[in-house]
Amino acid sequence: MPMDRLDLRLVEYFVAVAEELHFARAAERLHIAQPSLSQQIRRLEQQLGVVLLDRNSRRVELTPAGEVLLRDGRRLLAQSRRTAEAVRSAGAPRLTVGFYGSAGIALLPDTLRDFGEHLPACAVTVRELPLGHLDDIFSGDVDIAFTRLFPGQTELETEVLLSEPRVVALPVAHGLATRTSVAFADLSDEAFITNPVDQADGDRPPRWLTEQRRHKLRGRVATRATGVAEILTLVAAKRGVCLVPITVARHYPRSDVAYVPVTDADPAVISLAWRTDSVALTAFIDAARGVASRWTASPG
Description:
The protein has 10 helices and 12 strands. It is an alpha/beta fold. Helix 1 packs across helix 3. 31% of the residues are buried.
């Protein structure tokens, strides 16, 4: 009695014969013996209850049933391969890494390289996050992120990897733009561009405002911005000044913005923030720690 289900292995054998129209060439392609291949094709015909190939000592030809199976069999085998790949991909470790603007510049590329060498099977996706944006980490869309957060600013697990000096970004025509350094006292009349990450201290005053009050500044806010490019555009447009990590000065040079060291500014941090643990996540954190250690020894 004909079977209703197809054996994919037999379909693969048939497609090879149908494409080659030669049993010896098909057997060589499949790396099996020709007699065995002939036996398997006869088995398939018995299962389906039809003749798929007209063959004699001189030629092999497809019957109408064989033409249908060649057409649909190719599609069936292709879909089978896609399904197998999708299943294997779903079972492989995955990691989505986020970063805040300049927080990823120093460490992220080397961390990705080191992590890839240690866990090459893990598929890694990288995503830039708006400053202060944590929803993607809480939701699990991002597994871990390079941030400017301090421990205690969020319910997420947070680990500081590096600290770095801060500079003030000024319009190039600003009166302080040619100075080699300034102190907070020199900025007492300025309005500052802040960002949402600075607001993430819960009921406590934002960290930037606490720092400004400590230096007797009024904490005047010109506007808020959510990314480095936006901040620097606003500075260049004379909408305000902004304290930024020195990494920004090194990697975002602009002819319309001057960067001046602030001698009494608290350092900025580069930190990791994550919600849940996994083998891949632990390996990524270890890689980031190693890169941070090398960067501290020889900052670039």
